[in-house]
Each structure stands twice: as structure tokens, then as C-alpha cells.
Design a protein that fits this description.
This protein has 221 residues and is α+β, with helices and mostly antiparallel strands. It folds into 3 domains: 64 residues, Alpha-Beta Plaits; 76 residues, Alpha-Beta Plaits (2-Layer Sandwich); 48 residues, Roll (Ubiquitin-like (UB roll)), CATH 3.10.20.370. Helix content is 33%, strand content 21%. It has 6 helices and 9 strands. A hairpin with a 3-residue loop joins strand 7 and strand 8. Helix 4 packs antiparallel against helix 5 and helix 5 runs antiparallel to helix 6. The longest helix is centred in the first third of the chain and has 17 residues. It starts with 7 loop residues before the first helix and ends in an 11-residue tail after the last strand.
Length: 221
């Protein structure tokens, strides 16, 4: 499929989803990136055989230098995934850490996009990042923004949490889930957890958001 066509990503994504239909339990396609996961090496070989046959029958080609087979962990879509856990890729964290203090709306939107991609790793993300999103408010259409001490503090907090290499665990659907909810006057946050064999809780994901103007009138409890 040629590059540059407006509908190319959608068309190819739909094609791959149809091609790998029935393999959802051990395969996740994203455009031309395909992740195959298994519980054992023998099972992995069987899964690889199924996927490679489907790809071969569709007359698609695979570039060996772009493939990574039989790994305990693999980098996929900005995450290091494997052994039942996932964490942000180190290079992506460093890009955020080294990002200079934004001076324009374009730069702050880019920053929010970069850190927002990893929001599920950060507890109370919406509350922490609020000064950054507030910097985009108002009717002032000028590109320049005012980078306040509150903005810098929020940025430093986010960087600190990502540098700690946060880890999220894969859900085990044979075990009960734990949902923890906490709200303030300006927003709400949720943590989805599960306990391991030792009884220790491990986060599966964090979700949070600010309240809209109408919701600010509601009682928190």
C-alpha cells in the first residue's frame, strides 16, 4: 500500500484486523506492528506458526531485520512489555525529561501529548498536570504562554514519577479486581488493582480526569 494516502492507515488497520481475526487471545496488531504473546515457548511456536501462515497466505512480506522472536520482553508502541508487566520505554522517558520548558502553545500541547501517552502509569495524573492544561485556557490567541512556577512544579513532578520507572501489571481474569476511587473538588481518580499470591496489590492502570464546569457544582461525596 502506498504511503501518503489519507485512508491508508484505516484501510490497512482494518485489513490486518480481518486477517488476524480469531487470534485475539494471543496476537495484537497495530498497522504493520504485530505482537504475539504466549505462556510458554512451545505455545509461542504454535502461535507463531498460525500468524506466519496467515501472513504468508495473504501474500504479505516480513522483513527479518524488523522482527524479534522468542523474547521475554519486547518494545511495543512505546512500552516494554513482557513477563506480565509493562513499563515506559527508557528513550521516551528521556525525551520527556530533556524537554525544555515550553514557551508557546504549540510546545506545551506537544509536551502534554508526550506525557499524556503515559498517563495510565501515573496516579492522579489529571490533578498533577492541571497547571499545564490551565496555561492553554483563555481567549488569548497569541502563541506565547506564561510558564509559571506552578507549571514547572507540575512538569518536575511528572518527570520524577516517570524516572522512577513505573510498572503496570497485566490483568488476570481468573482473580477478583480491586477498584479504588478518590475524588476532590476539582477531579476524580481511579486505580484498578489485583492481589498476587502473596496478597500484595499491584496496579493495572490509573485513570483520572478534571471535572467540567457543571460538575464542579456537585458534591464530592
Amino acid at each position: 500500500m502506498p504511503f501518503g494516502l489519507v485512508s491508508a492507515p484505516f484501510t490497512f488497520s482494518k485489513f490486518m484486523a480481518e486477517l488476524l481475526k480469531g487470534c485475539e487471545d494471543f496476537c495484537v496488531p497495530y498497522l504493520d506492528d504485530v505482537a504475539i504473546f504466549s505462556n510458554s515457548l512451545d505455545e509461542h511456536v504454535k502461535h507463531l506458526d498460525v500468524i506466519l501462515r496467515k501472513i504468508g497466505n495473504a501474500k504479505l512480506k516480513i522483513k527479518p531485520s524488523k522482527c524479534s522472536l522468542g523474547r521475554k520482553t519486547v518494545k511495543y508502541l512505546g512500552h516494554v512489555v513482557g513477563n506480565g508487566i509493562r513499563s515506559p520505554v527508557e528513550a521516551k522517558i528521556q525525551a520527556i525529561v530533556n524537554f525544555p520548558a515550553p514557551k508557546t502553545r504549540t510546545e506545551i500541547r506537544r509536551l502534554i501529548g508526550m506525557i499524556g501517552y503515559y498517563s495510565r502509569y501515573i496516579k492522579d495524573y489529571a490533578k498533577i498536570v492541571e497547571p499545564l492544561t490551565n496555561a492553554l485556557r483563555g481567549k488569548n490567541k497569541r502563541e506565547q504562554i506564561t510558564w509559571t512556577p506552578e507549571c514547572q512544579k507540575a512538569f518536575d513532578t511528572i518527570k520524577g514519577k516517570l524516572v522512577e520507572r513505573p510498572v503496570l501489571h497485566a490483568p488476570d481474569y481468573s482473580k477478583p479486581f480491586i477498584i479504588q476511587v478518590d475524588s476532590s473538588n476539582t477531579g476524580t481518580g481511579v486505580v484498578l488493582c489485583q492481589r498476587d499470591e502473596k496478597g500484595e496489590e499491584h496496579p493495572i492502570l490509573y485513570l483520572s480526569r478534571k471535572f467540567i464546569k457543571a460538575e464542579l457544582n456537585y458534591c464530592t461525596t
